[in-house]
Design a protein that fits this description.
Largest sheet: 8 strands, parallel, barrel
Shape: globular
Radius of gyration: 18 Å
Number of strands: 10
Structural class: alpha/beta
Number of helices: 9
Strand content: 15-25%
Order of helices and strands: EHEHEHEHEHEHHEEEHEH
Helix content: 25-40%
Distance between the termini: 6 Å
Strand order of the largest sheet: 1-2-3-4-5-6-7-10
Length: 277
């Protein structure tokens, strides 16, 4: 079964967003834990969460993907920015335990001139301070396009982070199709080779979720510009091959395409129609 959803606003609560996802033909969704530009998170209602968990169980929801704010940069050269990253991550980990067994995705960050080695060390330090043995949430490092001084532009950088984190059983990877294409991984013509490399460098057992996006920018452009399915340079045929690849076909897929709800519903329907059970 194809597990697919899109990014939705959680402003009206988990039960509402769960019903909205179902109305789009989805069986998972992604949401921001707080304003994507940072700030205080909305209070969580235990009653709302319980109603959602019942709804999700009845409808066989796949794991959800929470997304950290874009301003979370654990390897910044600014101590205050790093402090916000730690405070937000610590708070979000507590909040995620209201919906246990799901995923928390974040961009590894940008080293802003300090160098990759320093950036990776700072990310490892943060994760070693914040991950707890008892947590039921798996934190996901997202594959990045490689713009500027981003960490996570290749599989090796993500593997190095995992290797340095003590509780790396709580740490997985979210693969973004637009990002890896922009980073130089040719998932259009060499999908098998890309997935084999991922397995060799990181391990496919650590790949937990996929952001399914087309790309406005060409291969190896290092530019992060998402496109609707079939309207970019990856193309619908390659993305259909991707969702049916044995390495990923049972994972939750999240659309981050520039769409309204009707557009998401159409893309979800299209991908379901082209999924091979």
């Amino acid at each position: 079964m194809l597990h697919i959803g899109c990014h939705l606003s959680i402003s009206k609560g988990f039960e509402h967003i769960g019903k909205e996802a179902l109305s789009l033909g989805a069986d998972t969704f992604q949401f921001f834990t707080r304003n994507p530009q940072g700030g205080k998170a909305k209070d969580i209602s235990a009653d709302d969460v319980n109603r959602f968990r019942h709804l999700a169980a009845q409808n066989n929801f796949a794991p959800l993907v929470a997304h950290a704010p874009y301003t979370l940069n654990p390897c910044s050269d600014n101590p205050q920015t790093r402090e916000f990253a730690e405070l937000a991550l610590t708070d979000d980990m507590k909040r995620m335990e209201y919906i246990p067994g799901n995923y928390y995705n974040f961009h590894p960050g940008s080293h802003v001139g300090q160098g990759v080695k320093t950036g990776i060390s700072l990310i490892i330090d943060l994760l070693n301070r914040t991950l707890k043995p008892e947590q039921q949430t798996t934190v996901l490092l997202e594959t990045m396009s490689g713009k500027g001084s981003e960490i996570g532009r290749n599989f090796e950088e993500l593997a190095e982070i995992r290797a340095g984190v003590k509780l790396n059983n709580k740490l997985g990877v979210c693969l973004d199709t637009c990002h890896v294409f922009a980073a130089g991984y040719d998932i259009v013509h060499n999908l098998d080779e890309v997935m084999t490399k991922f397995d060799k460098v990181i391990g496919l057992q650590h790949l937990k979720a996929v952001h399914l996006n087309d790309s406005l920018m060409p291969l190896a452009s290092n530019k992060d510009r998402h496109a609707k399915i079939g309207e970019g340079l990856i193309g619908s045929e390659a993305l259909i091959r991707f969702i049916n690849h044995p390495a990923v076909k049972n994972l939750p897929f999240v659309l981050e395409t520039p769409n309204d709800l009707a557009g998401y519903a159409a893309e979800i329907k299209f991908m379901r129609q082209n999924y091979i059970e």
